Structures are given as C-alpha cells and as structure tokens.
Amino acid sequence: xxxxxxxxxxxxxxxxxxxxxxxxxxxxxxxxxxxxxxxxxxxxxxxxxxxxxxxxxxxxxxxxxxxxxxxxxxxxxxxxxxxxxxxxxxxxxxxxxxxxxxxxxxxxxxxxxxxxxxxxxxxxxxxxxxxxxxxxxxxxxxxxxxxxxxxxxxxxxxxxxxxxxxxxxxxxxxxxxxxxxxxxxxxxxxxxxxxxxxxxxxxxxxxxxxxxxxxxxxxxxxxxxxxxxxxxxxxxxxxxxxxxxxxxxxxxxxxxxxxx
Length: 260
Hints:
CATH superfamily: Spore Coat Polysaccharide Biosynthesis Protein SpsA, Chain A
Radius of gyration: 17 Å
Shape: globular
Largest sheet: 7 strands, mixed
Helix content: 40-55%
Number of strands: 10
Strand content: 15-25%
C-alpha cells in the first residue's frame, strides 16, 4: 500500500477516501485488498466519526492516513477526505467493500483512456441472502438502464471515482442521506461519466440485508424509489422514510459501544 508521507505526494494519482464509524469487522478486509493492488500510486484516507472499537488502530496499522472527527456525518466525512487528498482522482468507497487486485489499475486507465470525468457502478454483493442478491442486481440494472435512456443519473459511494477538480466545482456532497445520488446526478450534467458493471472491480457486503431481513431492509431503503420516480423526491412521505433511515443508521453505528 502507498503509505502516506510528504516524500511521495507527487506520485499519488488516486486518493481512496473511506468514512468510518465502528467498522473493525470490515475495514481490515478493505485495506488488505488495497495492499494487493497492481497500481501503487495511491493513498488511503480514513475519516473516522469517533469509533469506540479498533477501527482507527486497524486503519493506522495498514498505513492509512486517519482523520478523527467525532460525530461527523457520512458525506461531510467524505468532503473532509477530499479536502486533504493529493490524488488527481478521488475514489469514494465504503468500509465493507473489497477490491480486486487490478481495480485501481483498470480505474485509472479507463478514466484517462476514455477522457472521463468519473467512473462508477455496481459490483458483486457477498454474504447476502438470495433475495438480497436478486434485489441488488435488479435495482442496479434499473439504474443502468436509466443512465442509458435519460439524463438522470444516480450512483452509490460504494464505488464512485471522480476527478478532484470536478468534485470541487460541483461543491462536494450535500449532507443528506441521498447525498451520493444528488452529487452523481449533478456531476453528470457537467462531466462525462461511465456507469459500469463493476463485477470485476469490487465486492460489497450484504450485511444490512442479513441484519434487517427482507421487510426491514426494504423499509430502510424505501426512499431509493426516487431513482425510478424522481418526482417523489421532495414529497413528505419520502422525506419521512429518509429521516427514518438516517436515524436507524446513527443508532446502528453507536450501538456497538453499548454492546462491548
């Protein structure tokens, strides 16, 4: 892994930015996958919201640059990471993602060869129930079709790579639960972005599917229906489900401390 230090900043091409809060069960797998990358000119920035477990120690063990901002929200954390990043490309991801060894190499080549402003997409979901796997691919197939048919683009920060210059021109992420979708839609109005089937790029955990079950999971993420029906985005009922989902995530993260 490219360990962060002042002597190597001129060689850094990609900054991998990861927000964390009590992610000791997953962050090691992500960082370990980064040690196997064929592309070496990158840095890893972990912006932690005040973990009470071993997340910070694990991140430091793997050579990531760690910034601790207690109780900072997810998308604000991503913005903080972008502000201190040296890479010309910002790769936003999540703690429960695992990359293939050639992920960063293919990412860098594709963005530059195709002269893209960004690259994003969906990978493979692992440790998920069968219904979760089917639902995951069904949802992202709809997203892929929408990007082909209309100028309405939504993507996830499980895997979102953008040029740093463009990121700041857009103004970064809004601190809302659907902040990644809002940003990706605004970004693609200005820049050329490719939405890929990233099955050979990364794996993402189906942990919430297992934990919440079919009904709990779908209620939790009901607000994503705005991808298909964007006119519902600002309705009262959808705002209610967004608030409900946000509160659940906060409770989920900080419950680690109570159970230790």
